[in-house]
């Protein structure tokens, strides 16, 4: 079988990264979490105090920024200018601001370039919002993964508990819905199902079931 590129897109907290990691591990592919890159530049922008609404200011900041994804056992490490920010980028502070940063054309152009370089010539499982539509348009397998917003909020709530984050469920649900709206309505590469993507509703699927569904599709296409 051939190593293929697998693109997994979908709204926030649909389980994309959990499932993508499992599939990558089983196939011996690299896992690339593109959301982490948008989160990293957002963290830097917040710390630098730039005007988050400005495409130009974001561009200037980016020109002076290095973002690296380092594959590690069971996932990836995110380096921002050499510093490990893997935990810091998961905070509510970053989560609330990321969709505004990710809407900028200059930001997306740079990230897509980096992502395409990371995927070049190897088996990858890449998750995000625009992977099937823009980053890896030739991917052999594209999956659009979703679940009801209630279920996604509940899952994020459970995941947060383990990391001692105590944001109330209602607040999580509102934040997720708001982020989906911004990601779907932005002008540049909005969140959208690619025409040739397989739709996977995980509302009533376990992690094991969802991973198995993707493994089956991957085997058919590799
Ligand atoms: O996947 P995650 O929830 O970590 O993504 C955080 C944010 O990064 C998304 O809400 C979206 O604004 C942005 N993003 C994007 N394109 C991607 C991946 C993430 O715009 N490919």
UniProtKB/TrEMBL annotation:
GO molecular function term, any single one: kinase activity
Reactions this protein catalyses: dCMP + ATP = dCDP + ADP; CMP + ATP = CDP + ADP
InterPro entries membership: Cytidylate_kin, Cytidylate_kinase_dom, P-loop_NTPase
Chain ranges passing through the membrane: none
Gene3D superfamilies: P-loop containing nucleotide triphosphate hydrolases (3.40.50.300)
Domain Cytidylate kinase: from-to ranges: 6-219
Record protein name field: Cytidylate kinase
Name of the gene encoding the protein in the UniProt record: cmk
């Amino acid at each position: 079988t051939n190593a293929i590129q697998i693109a997994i897109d979908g709204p926030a907290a649909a389980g994309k990264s959990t499932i993508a990691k499992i599939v990558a591990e089983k196939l011996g592919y690299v896992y690339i979490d593109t959301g982490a890159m948008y989160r990293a530049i957002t963290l830097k922008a917040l710390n630098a105090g730039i005007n988050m609404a400005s495409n130009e200011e974001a561009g200037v900041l980016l020109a002076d920024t290095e973002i690296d994804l380092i594959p590690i056992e069971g996932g990836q490490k995110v380096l921002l200018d050499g510093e490990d920010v893997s935990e810091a980028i998961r905070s509510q502070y970053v989560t609330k601001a990321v969709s505004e940063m990710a809407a900028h054309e200059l930001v997306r152009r740079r990230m897509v370039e980096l992502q395409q370089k990371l995927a070049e010539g190897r088996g990858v499982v890449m998750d995000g919002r625009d992977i099937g539509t823009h980053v890896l348009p030739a991917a052999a397998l594209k999956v659009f993964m979703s679940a009801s917003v209630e279920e996604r909020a509940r899952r994020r709530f459970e995941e947060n508990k383990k990391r001692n984050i105590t944001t109330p469920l209602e607040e999580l649900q509102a934040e997720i819905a708001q982020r989906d709206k911004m990601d779907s309505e932005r002008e540049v590469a909005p969140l959208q199902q690619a025409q040739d993507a397989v739709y996977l509703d995980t509302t009533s699927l376990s992690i094991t079931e969802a991973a198995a569904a993707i493994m089956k599709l991957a085997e058919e296409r590799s």
